[in-house]
Amino acid sequence: MVDIFDEVEEDLRAERAQALLKRYGGLLIAAALLVIGAAGGWEAWRWWQAKRDMAAASAFLAAMSTAQTVGPQIAGSSADAASHKAAIEAFDHVAATAPDGYRTLARLRAAALQADLGNLAAAAATYDQVAADSTADPVLRDLASLLWVQRQLDTGDPARLEARLKPLAEPDNPWHALASEDLALLDLRQGHTDAAKATLHRLAGDVTLPQDLRGRASLMLNRLGG
Description:
The chain is an all-alpha fold. Helices cover 79% and strands 0% of the residues.
């Protein structure tokens, strides 16, 4: 009797399974295909990203190689100007085609070459592009602002330069020491010697700063009479 009941129960289970399969089989197959498709799509996306990153890295290294052949800009040297322009174009290509990280680095290198070539307006515009790029790393955006100031420290409008430097000179900013040094130089340019000395004393006495920066601060203090 027990065997009969077991056989009947098994038959009922089989019938229920067949009924469920007929009713929901299409959905189960669709769900399985969706999972397989999603996994395949994810792997394809990762492959495409890796391929894109490799292409960007190769292009950036090629641009760096071109930039390394550029010597100091010599007035009247058309060959040197041509090599600068070739390197700038290489970095511009990377900036136009590469993902965020390489794009930002390429713009910074292009701006430096533009400044070396004497085109300070173009360099400032490129630095501004990086500083205003919300997708760029905040540290690199602040670096772009700092370099924007440094390229104009002797000739730019003091009020504008100071406005860009002050946020960078905050203690929690990674560029605060260099920004503070530039603020001291800007004060000296405007004849604010006491303010410059106060900043330089702080930099020279800060043991957490790099030795070369502290040394520059001490040297300037000596020249200013302490």
